[in-house]
Design a protein that fits this description.
The complex is a heterotrimer. By secondary structure, chain B is of the alpha/beta class. Chain B is built from 7 helices and 5 strands; from the N terminus they run E-H-E-H-H-H-E-H-E-H-H-E. In chain B, strand 1, helix 1 (13-29) and strand 2 (32-40) form a beta-alpha-beta unit. Among the domains of chain C are: 13-18 and 60-140 and 202-371 and 421-519, Sodium/glucose cotransporter (Up-down Bundle); 546-574, no CATH class. Chain C starts with a helix and ends with a helix. Classes of the chains: A mainly alpha, B alpha/beta, C mainly alpha. At the A-C interface, helix 1, helix 3, helix 4 and helix 6 of A face helix 5, helix 10, helix 11, helix 13 and helix 22 of C.
């Protein structure tokens, strides 16, 4: 299976045997992983190797794998902050126009104008960079590498 | 006289009609046959979008399932018929503007004969749809055998 | 109602704009288009000898610029400043809606789309929900989106074209209308020439040229009038106090509800636009998908921080030189739509420079329209013609259908733009509302809930289309039909505005899709596994899509026992092909 198996290049027609071997001897498999992975045999990475993602249900509100749970935690956190940054200022302006339209010192913007015109897009940009960084960290924790040259791990 | 014969094919019935002629000649002259499928970039551009052209540029044709299947089928059909007659068929897939690619291929690989099918269209239909065969004819010095496709109607 | 009567109605001539033929700016416009063509030609797809040889990959920065270039349309370049100037704080809904949507796209769709790896948006809908009907609806929606979006571009092109080419009214058409026809002809011509040359879109170059024109214009206007020096994007804040209250006072021109509805629609629309989404199919891997989006948003923000500044300067200059901006009569919508050029002109900048800014606007509109027409043509040619009507279509036939679709789109857009119903930004927002109402829910639910099934999707898409059509008929159609006053129903226009209809549509469509999906059979296991593969963190090799991996039997796991043996035998034939393909690509 030249496409899928990052773990063992010999994995071709003999998938059947090897897999049963796996089920019985997970310990060895993990060490095997450590060898080919360059030593990333952490708990998360092991869990990742043992998870059959094609068998785990995908449901936004009900994550079924540890990876997805952690990922969604990042997603919902980011989403919450985003919602506040995007809709917060304008709602605040609706509720308290007097306070929100006061001019800012130095730059002279009315507060609401600044928060909406500059604050919201800037927050989205910063959040995007933050999210991507966190995803990279998550991938590292689970021992996942995106190799641009076409192989994995 | 004919050591290498090129059969450009797009998998259509029109192309198929030429295959018999080509294989017959190949058998008699003990020639090597090349089956060439050209992915028409214009077609990809207009029917799939420019981003897909980008994908081809990056060499990621392998992941474009349906395109690849069509190409493999077309050249595969020639290979199959060739095998029945004990003729060697080299399958190849290229991308670009069909008539140019065919002409270039014929030159680069020292083809002695090109065998192509033609709709034999006339009038408006020809003006609109054009003829790759005709353009190829004019783009190359290699002898071209044109086999008209005789349709039911 | 006669066509002639409709045609003669429109008198869009921006007051204060110097409408006359200008030689140098004309050359600049043509020059810009030629540069796009030339670069596209130079970087065209050279005839590929071996289809599996990895070509040059496209990095995060370049992808980001391509994403940015997608947004460099007449709407961002011209239309946004227009609304910020005339509609005050409501105009900022567009700034917010057109930027912050990318974060939602990033966290929910970008990486997953890469893994799904299809060709077009209707492809996704058709394959994910195993339905040709869904595909057809998706294709029609894509076509409609392209059409409506393009009307906005046509308006922008024509208005700025007046500045550069003058009032060339012929055959009883007004100057504006004549310009629409001329500019649209140039667009179709550009597209045809581009096709003939085999030139590819080089988005990065387009982005750079257009952003330079825009930002240079901003700095020049700021400096010439003493508004700003180093950072006009912040310095315009101080100017706001000097402008009429309507510029910044909240909810003067539009209600809070409309602000939210508009911003929401633009955000979900961003996540549903076909030409935005397909870009993610073509990036190298998910990590690239993510970081490209970040860069893309950065490049977009450069423009989006500049536009309000431009609007502020323009408003001030207009009120000093031409008349009051607000009130009756105030600035007309056509003058507002060209406020970027107007500002440069009123700052007494050299004509060639104003021409540069104007040329940027036209080039942006033409490039965007060209892209939209391709997206629309692919919907007709690939998704409706080839996949549904004539699966054995030859490549030549596909090309022909594609070209005819482009001509059709061109004609329809030109006709509709002769008397446009609304300012540029509004017209474009109608397209976003459509994308948000019909396509976004399908992508979101399709990716994040594996039990979304065909019946649910069909019900949802139909609902979305209907909800979108209602305000369009209510507000837009009457402007084209003589004798009717828009809106037909004021109450409806307030709570389901055409410009922000996705606010209502999205929750309804979600509800319908979910309920119907729950009430009917679950999708086939194969489909569910494809969805799971889109979320699997297991990195995919370059030459793979989710479908490929699922067909291969998935990743190597502890309990593969029986399944793997099946795969080994079933994949026999496939292995052979792959082996030969992989050899060429020299993997492992």
């Amino acid at each position: 299976m030249t496409h899928n198996s990052s773990h063992d290049p010999d994995d071709v027609a003999t998938d059947g045997e090897r897999a049963t071997g796996d089920a019985a001897t997970d310990g060895e498999r993990a060490t095997g992983d450590a060898a080919t992975d360059g030593g990333v045999a952490t708990g998360a990475a092991q869990q990742h190797r043992q998870t059959d993602y094609l068998d785990s249900e995908v449901n936004l509100l009900n994550p079924s794998t540890p990876y997805m749970r952690e990922h969604l935690r990042i997603v919902w956190t980011g989403f919450a902050i985003w919602a506040v940054a995007v809709f917060g200022p304008v709602t605040a302006t609706y509720l308290a126009p007097g306070a929100m339209t006061t001019p800012m010192p130095i730059i002279g913007f009315p507060l609401h104008y600044f928060l909406i015109a500059i604050g919201a897009p800037a927050s989205a940009l910063i959040l995007s960079a933050w999210y991507s960084k966190r995803r990279d960290e998550l991938d590292e924790k689970y021992g996942i590498e995106h190799d641009a040259a076409g192989g994995d791990a | 006289m004919y050591e290498r014969i090129l059969i450009p094919t797009d998998g259509s019935d029109v192309a198929e009609s030429a295959v018999e002629h080509a294989l017959d000649l190949a058998e008699k002259y003990d020639a090597e046959v090349h089956a060439l499928y050209v992915v028409d970039i214009d077609s990809v551009h207009l029917s799939l979008g420019t981003e897909q052209v980008d994908r081809l540029k990056q060499g990621r044709f392998g992941e474009m399932g349906e395109l690849k299947e069509k190409a493999d089928e077309a050249t595969g059909a020639v290979a199959e018929r060739g095998a029945e007659r004990d003729v060697d068929v080299v399958e190849h897939i290229s991308g670009g503007r069909p008539h140019k690619v065919i002409a270039d291929y014929a030159e680069d690989h020292e083809m002695d004969l090109i065998v192509m099918g033609s709709h034999g269209r006339a009038g408006v239909r020809r003006a609109l749809l054009g003829s790759v065969t005709e353009r190829t004819l004019r783009s190359t010095h290699v002898p071209v055998l044109v086999v008209d496709y005789l349709d039911e109607d | 109602m006669t066509l002639a009567a409709t045609l003669l109605q429109s008198e869009l001539l921006p007051e204060g704009l110097d409408v006359s033929f200008k030689a140098l700016p004309s050359v600049l416009v043509v020059g810009m288009l030629l540069v796009f063509l030339a670069i596209g030609f130079v970087f065209r797809v050279a005839d590929t000898e071996d289809m599996w040889v990895a070509g040059r990959s496209i990095g995060n920065l370049e992808n980001g610029m391509a994403i940015g270039a997608n947004w460099m349309s007449a709407a961002s370049y011209l239309g946004m400043a227009a609304l910020i100037a005339t509609a005050g704080v409501y105009g900022l809904a567009f700034v917010v809606g057109w930027t912050t949507g990318y974060f939602i796209l990033l966290i929910f769709l970008a990486a997953q789309l890469r893994r799904f790896g299809k060709y077009t948006a209707p492809d996704f809908v058709g394959d994910r929900f195993n339905s040709d009907t869904a595909r057809a609806i998706g294709a029609v929606t894509t076509f409609l989106i392209g059409f409506v979006y393009a009307i906005g571009q046509a308006r922008g092109m024509a208005l700025v074209g007046l500045y550069i080419f003058g009032d060339l009214g012929f055959l009883g058409l007004s100057g504006y209308q004549a310009m629409v026809i001329i500019m649209m002809s140039i667009t179709v011509g550009y597209l045809t020439l581009s096709g003939m040359l085999g030139a590819t879109k080089n988005m990065a170059v387009q982005y750079v040229i257009l952003i330079v024109a825009f930002v240079a214009g901003l700095y020049a206007v700021g400096l010439a009038n003493g508004y700003s020096t180093v950072l006009p994007h912040i310095e315009y804040g101080a100017l706001i106090a000097d402008l009429s209250a309507e510029f910044s006072e909240p909810f003067v021109n539009a209600s809070f509800y409309l602000w939210i509805a508009t911003a929401f629609s633009l955000i979900v629309g961003t996540c549903g636009l076909p030409h935005v989404l397909v870009r993610f199919y073509t990036v190298e891997n998910e990590r690239t998908a993510r970081w490209s989006t970040v860069w893309g948003l950065f490049f977009i923000c450069i423009l989006y921080f500049s536009a309000p500044a431009f609007a502020a300067f323009g408003t001030d200059l207009y009120s000093r030189n031409i008349g009051a901006v607000y009130g009756d009569p105030g600035m007309t919508s056509s003058a507002a739509d060209v406020i970027v050029v107007l500002a440069a002109q009123l700052s007494n900048l050299p004509q060639w420079f104003v021409g540069l800014v104007a040329a940027g606007g036209i080039a942006a509109a033409i490039a965007t329209t060209a892209g939209l027409f391709i997206a629309g043509s692919s919907a007709i040619s690939h998704d409706i013609y080839t996949t549904i009507i004539n699966p054995d279509a030859t490549q030549r036939q596909q090309v022909l259908v594609g070209r005819l679709s482009i001509v059709l789109l061109g004609v329809l857009t030109t006709l509709a733009a002769l008397d446009p119903a609304a300012p540029i930004a509004a017209l474009v927002s109608y397209a976003f509302s459509l994308a948000g109402a019909v396509l976004f829910p399908m992508f979101f639910l399709g990716m994040w809930w594996e039990n979304t099934n065909r019946e649910g999707a069909l019900a949802g898409m139909t609902t979305g289309l209907v909800i979108w059509f209602i305000p369009m008929i209510n507000e837009v159609v009457p402007t084209y039909v003589g004798g009717l006053e828009a809106p037909l129903n004021a109450g409806l226009a307030t709570w389901l505005p055409a410009i922000g209809s996705a606010l209502i549509a999205v929750p309804v469509v979600f509800a319908v899709t979910i309920v119907v999906s729950l009430a009917t059979d679950e999708p086939p296991a194969e489909t569910k596994r494809i969805v799971r593969q889109c979320h699997s963190p297991e990195p995919m090799r370059q030459q793979q899509t989710a479908e490929d991996v699922v067909a291969d039997g998935g990743e190597d796991v502890a309990t593969d026992g029986g399944r793997a043996t099946d795969d080994a035998s079933a994949d026999g034939g496939r292995e052979a092909n792959d082996a030969s393909a992989d050899d060429a690509a020299t993997e492992e």
